[in-house]
Task: structure prediction
Amino acid sequence: MKPTVGAVAKDLSPEAREYPSRPIVGVGVVVWRDDEVLLIERGKPPLQGTWSIPGGAQEVGETVAEAGRREVLEETGVEVEITGLVDVVDSIRHDDEGRIRSHYTLIDLTGEWIGGELRPGDDASDCRWVRLDELPAYELWSETLRIIRRAAELRPR
Result:
């Protein structure tokens, strides 16, 4: 029996995200609207209260692009056209004893806003369009900042 697109595997429960038996694939999207990039404030663990690009775990049966579009729509109400791959980032965090507490393989895409009214939803407590010169105020993870800058370089003008 083929899995249904959007079916969440049992191993993606919040409890199983800590000390996982395998990496979890996450998909993030650098979304552009004119010269602004879309940021969300995470409303749930991990990293609750921090700012980032929209994204989340890829679900069984989804392509990477489908996961990116779904996550952006769920978290922000925005529809996006995926335009390319920016990079792949490994996020591996250890506990005080050196054991792997979390392991995400993050596939970062870039895309253009095509519609929808901005509103936080799903895992986001806030979302907003931000100019590149405003990014320092959001204290982004250094890898997120690098991904946004790389996406800006790759973006056709």
User: Anything to note?
Assistant: The beta strands are 24-33, 36-42, 51-52, 55-57, 79-94, 100-115, 124-131. The first strand starts at residue 24 and ends at 33. The chain has two helices and seven strands.
